[in-house]
UniProtKB/TrEMBL annotation:
<dbReference type="Pfam" id="PF09997">
    <property type="entry name" value="DUF2238"/>
</dbReference>
<keyword id="KW-1133">Transmembrane helix</keyword>
<dbReference type="InterPro" id="IPR014509">
    <property type="entry name" value="YjdF-like"/>
</dbReference>
<dbReference type="InterPro" id="IPR058534">
    <property type="entry name" value="YjdF"/>
</dbReference>
<keyword id="KW-0812">Transmembrane</keyword>
<feature type="transmembrane region" description="Helical">
    <location>
        <begin position="103"/>
        <end position="120"/>
    </location>
</feature>
<feature type="transmembrane region" description="Helical">
    <location>
        <begin position="34"/>
        <end position="52"/>
    </location>
</feature>
<feature type="transmembrane region" description="Helical">
    <location>
        <begin position="175"/>
        <end position="196"/>
    </location>
</feature>
<feature type="transmembrane region" description="Helical">
    <location>
        <begin position="59"/>
        <end position="83"/>
    </location>
</feature>
<protein>
    <submittedName>
        <fullName>Membrane protein</fullName>
    </submittedName>
</protein>
<keyword id="KW-0472">Membrane</keyword>
<feature type="transmembrane region" description="Helical">
    <location>
        <begin position="132"/>
        <end position="155"/>
    </location>
</feature>
Length: 206
């Protein structure tokens, strides 16, 4: 898609996200949790508009950002441990907990990995595909680790009030499994979308 059509795609994404934000914000399960979960969307959406002229992203990346944002919004609306879709998957796979938060962490690895990959490729910052993949996975894991630190700080600051935000569901290994899901997301992003992203970058940079 030519860069000239980026505003149209961004407009569609913005309308969808605003509708989701309004819907989720009417009666969220826990208002402070909702605010913390949707905060990244409220930060990133204006940034996409501020940067699209100087540094438009690929349509693939904009679309994946949309899906990640929707996961965050509905996780904030219900709290991750109570998202209905997660209960359906839990019952279908006979799991011991609602797995919706793991979907969120999967995308927390996938989307930042492809953002990092696009920036590194277009800037020529990393030489060699193997090194590029390694650096991208390291960046995705670093972002996941920072998020886990934010969760820890929230727990210290809010005490039991942070339970809905943390969404551990009694799992003592929740932090480690969250980061593992982020790593899986980064690896899947590289395996599934690298070629597609390369083609779109070439068209975008003509």
């Amino acid at each position: 898609m030519p860069a000239s059509r980026t505003p149209l795609l961004l407009s569609v994404i913005t309308l969808l996200l605003l509708a989701a934000l309004i819907h989720s914000g009417i009666r969220p399960y826990d208002r402070p949790t909702w605010l913390m979960e949707v905060a990244p969307v409220l930060v990133v959406l204006p940034l996409l508009w501020l940067t699209y002229r100087r540094y438009p992203l690929t349509p693939l990346l904009y679309t994946l950002i949309l899906f990640h944002a929707l996961i965050l919004i509905f996780g904030g609306m219900y709290s991750y441990a109570r998202v209905p879709l997660g209960f359906e998957v839990q019952q279908w796979l006979d799991l011991g907990r609602n797995p919706y938060d793991k979907l969120g962490h999967f995308f927390q690895g996938l989307v930042p990995a492809l953002v990092a990959r696009e920036i590194l490729l277009r800037g020529g910052y990393v030489q060699g595909r193997k090194m590029l993949g390694f650096v991208v996975c390291c960046i995705a894991l670093a972002i996941s680790a920072v998020y886990e630190l934010i969760e820890w700080w929230a727990a210290l600051a809010l005490g039991q009030g942070a339970d809905e935000f943390l969404g551990t569901q009694g799992d003592p290994w929740d932090t480690q499994s969250d980061m593992f899901c982020a790593l899986l997301g980064a690896l899947c992003g590289l395996l599934l979308f690298a070629g597609w992203q390369d083609r779109q970058i070439r068209r975008l940079c003509r």
